[in-house]
Write a structure and sequence with these properties.
Layout: E1 3-9, H1 16-24, E2 31-37, H2 44-48, E3 54-59, H3 65-75, E4 80-83, E5 88-90, H4 95-103, E6 110-118, E7 125-129, E8 151-153, H5 154-160, H6 171-182, E9 187-198, H7 207-223, H8 232-238
Parallel strand pairs: 1-2, 1-4, 2-3, 6-9
Antiparallel strand pairs: 4-8, 5-9, 6-7, 6-8
Helix pairs in contact: 6-7
Length: 247
Amino acid sequence: MKVTIITVSYNAAATIADTLSSVAFQSYRNIEHILIDGGSTDSTMEIASRYPHLKHVVSEKDNGIYDAMNKGLQLATGDIIGILNGDDFYTSAGIIEKVVKRFEHPDMDALYGDLVYVNETYTRITRTWKAGEYDPQKFYRGWMAPHPTLFVRKWVYDQYGHYEASLRYAADYEIMLRFMLKYKIRCGYLPETMVIMKRGGKSNASLMNRILINREDRNAWRICGLRPHLFTLILKPLSKISQFINL
């Protein structure tokens, strides 16, 4: 099976080498790596030019991170698609090989695993996200899978659509609700840390962003034609508290 990895970046010179290297040195070789850059003004693209394994490189202005992901999806030709942003990297050279082995089972449409956040200097773990075994009912209790660990068969995107780019913060949540809860694709869990992610991101930047993402979470359910339980959207941020315990 061919695996497509889509990397989205913007002014990621400080981290992009780690991201690209973590894909270039995977033991599984049938990988199509696509870089979609938002028109970086730093040395991101010069660094990317040192990685000949990249199959497609696009650098141009976009309409946000999810619009960039959709550009990557339009170029993707792999049987399985994963998304690894420009400040994330895989924890080992064997991650994609393990993913492919799980997808050898025909009843596997999507797979996710665990993730850790680290500080700006990559010297300390600040948050541990253990996603746990899949149960679609968990969505009603505020659950979602760590998006950077999510791998999905291409036919799912082809049949059920790409990211809802009108959502600035919650398009990853919406696409999981759509694929997993609305259309009931078959999902699996790889119980190990697959991705290391730098602490930060839009949704964690400020209290106002947390308020905005809560509104978008509600819109995500509406867009999917689904109705959350009374406390679902309150439980979603509260469920993250355990990720900061016993670091």
